[in-house]
Amino acid sequence: MTLQINDIAPDFEAETTEGRIRFHNWIGDSWAVLFSHPKDFTPVCTTELGYMAKLKPEFDRRSTKIIGLSVDPVDSHVKWANDIKETQGVAPNYPMIGDTDLKISKLYGMLPAGTAGTAAGRTPADNQTVRNVFVIGPDKKIKLIIVYPMSTGRNFDEVLRVLDSLQLTAKHKVSTPVNWKRGEDVIISGSVTDEDAKKIYPAGWKAPRPYIRIVPQPRA
């Protein structure tokens, strides 16, 4: 199964470090970030899980829930959390999904559908494709997919930046330009005619080309 942007994120039930969940119900009316790991006690993932714990207040401010997944049992995740706290300064403060039967990894296209067996005996290299970030909207549609190799730690500051853009552009008919950060100028969407744009932006806009209409970021 190959998931794409605007697909409905597959629903599932799973055990987590904070109890059993049904994914769509757990998301509720929030945004969500699901990020996956090939195995517990791997070095790059240890740094990532700690950093996400430090960033959690930023996601909270954006009404966004975060949840991890690793191809190992929940009781192993609990033990791993101790290492994360000791080495990164903070333990995961969000749920971690156990995917021992590989069901979710296959459901989300991170492992081939025909992958047999369970997590037992599998190495990080066997699961190296379980390195995805999915941003999911309150409508349960996938808004962003990023896939990383095992050797490269993820940039979760970039995930926050994209989340700011996604939330802004979901509310206003604008797009965000290259390297945009919250508070910077945006571009009026091409679907908005000049006539309609004048009603929305009576002060006008900068237009280095007719198709590039730049305005301050909407605040409301």
Automatic annotation (TrEMBL):
Active site positions, chain numbering: 45
Keyword Flavoprotein: no
Name of the protein described by the UniProt record: Peroxiredoxin
An annotated GO BP: cellular response to stress
Cellular component annotations (GO), alphabetically ordered: cytosol
Family the entry assigns: Belongs to the peroxiredoxin family. Prx6 subfamily. Belongs to the peroxiredoxin family. AhpC/Prx1 subfamily.
GO molecular function: thioredoxin peroxidase activity
PANTHER family, per database record: ALKYL HYDROPEROXIDE REDUCTASE C, THIOREDOXIN PEROXIDASE
CDD domains on file: PRX_1cys
Oxidoreductase found in the keyword field: yes
Domain Thioredoxin span(s) in chain numbering: 3-168
Keywords in alphabetical order: Antioxidant, Oxidoreductase, Peroxidase, Redox-active center
Gene3D superfamilies: Antioxidant, Horf6, Chain A, domain2 (3.30.1020.10), Glutaredoxin (3.40.30.10)
